[in-house]
Amino acid sequence: MQPTPIQVKARQPEAPELSHSSQSVSDQNFLVFDQVSKGFPTSKGIYPVLENVNLTVRQGEFVCLIGHSGCGKSTLLSLVSGFQQATGGSVTLKGEPILKPGPDRMVVFQSYALLPWRTVFENVYLAVKSVWPSKPEAQKRAIVREHLAMVGLTEAADKKPDQISGGMRQRVSIARALAIRPEVLILDEPFGALDAITKEELQEELLKIWSDHRCTVLMITHDIDEALFLADRLVMMTNGPAASIGEVMNIPFERPRDRDQIMEDPQYYRLRNHALDFLYNRFAHDDDAP
Amino acid sequence: MVTQAPSRTQTRSNPVISSIQQFWQKRGGDIIPPVIGIATFLTLWQLISWSGITRLPGPLSLWTDTRTRELMLYPFYDLGGLNKGLFWQTLASLGRVAQGYTAAAVVGISVGVFVGTNPWFNKATYPIFQFLRMVAPLAWVPIALVALQQNQPAAIFVIFITAVWPILINTIEGVQQIPEDYNNVAKVLQLSRKDYYLNILFPSALPYIFTGLRIAIGLAWLAIIAAEIVMSGIVGIGFFIWDAYQQNYISEIILAVFYIGLVGLLLDRLIAFLQMKIAPTRN
Question: Which of A159, A184, A217, B54 has the fewest Cβ atoms nearer than 10 Å?
């Protein structure tokens, strides 16, 4: 199994969108993790969650993170969203260190985090209003309507979140995130709670929206097939404590991607087996760990 | 032909009768048990009082006693001074409760929001609040009288100090229980303070605040009676009881107790109604 990663890496040095992101250094070094470590203080001293994480993400790239639970994927993303700060090293966006949360790095939360006492429209509107307070009212409302239409929820605009299905809530959450034009879109296992059909639909929608908007996407997933369908690169994390990036796999499939087509590609299974091997043999989760 | 007549009347009166029947079928099970319960309670009470075990008059004495019958028939009479009908007595007490309770709601909610959003202040004030809320309403009466010198403001202060703790403590709890996700949304969007309060803090904490308000209205009503009993010489249902006791009009006390219970029930229902309108519980 050893030669596989080398082969994989050698075959696709360039992802398709590189054509537009190879213009400048800042596009190449859009989001940079440099020797990042993160520990939490406990009564028994510092508990290291992440150590020596190095990763450079290009502008407009779609990156998926995979790893066993407890490996610090969410922690890594929270360093980008700014909810937490690295204890060592630095995380920089366009050369600027990330110090606090901001709408340029919008999060699609695992549990959607829609306000249940506001309608679908109002939930998106609140985001638009707080990011562009001085835009004319009509324009703000138009932005909300446009993004609800984009995720196919025009009809549900006046419903409350608990009156719609889980898949629809996730669409609202995505619409809210995209409506404010973030530079980085952070998704923490966005489709984990959805049924298989809704999940595939939403993956395709997300991909379509991403190819129109071209924001940089960081997404946590537990699903290798999802990552292979969506991502330019798949970041595979080692197990915690003191987790780091074990390997980064390039996913070479042409865009726009077609699920059936890529699944027929012989590379698909080689990549898939390689990722499975990483997760279940080389970094198998030891449930009996102390 | 003969059999048609009754069947026609039956079909004509059907809508009314059937709707009553429907109501009875639906709600009868909720109505019969409390009616039987209350009737049994009143009957037992009357029997015990007839048996002579206690000096306490039975419920029938409310009608047989001329004083209470007149009080029941003329709740609106006003002969000046303290000699007023029970409606005015109750209204005077309610007025004090309204003032003290409103102050308690304003102070409790605003201080609760402030303390709930500032962990340092929460730690600093926690022991004080927990200590003060354990002080019984009656214990505040002498303190209030010494501090404020006059009966009227002292009574309102006693209501305030009794009602404020559940509102304050529940508001603090409600603010602390705001789901982390909502706070994270606020942080990412960098919501203004006003937007955060209106869209996240208040809607999220409202069920807790209303729990506090509902506990507080009951306590406030209990406290005003206690406070008025101690503060002599004011118009109010509490002092009315004390006055009746001094003059040995026991049936009057029982009548006043009915008023107090009924008003307490109505106050609780009122807050519950507001809660349902403003902060309906979501499934």
Answer: B54
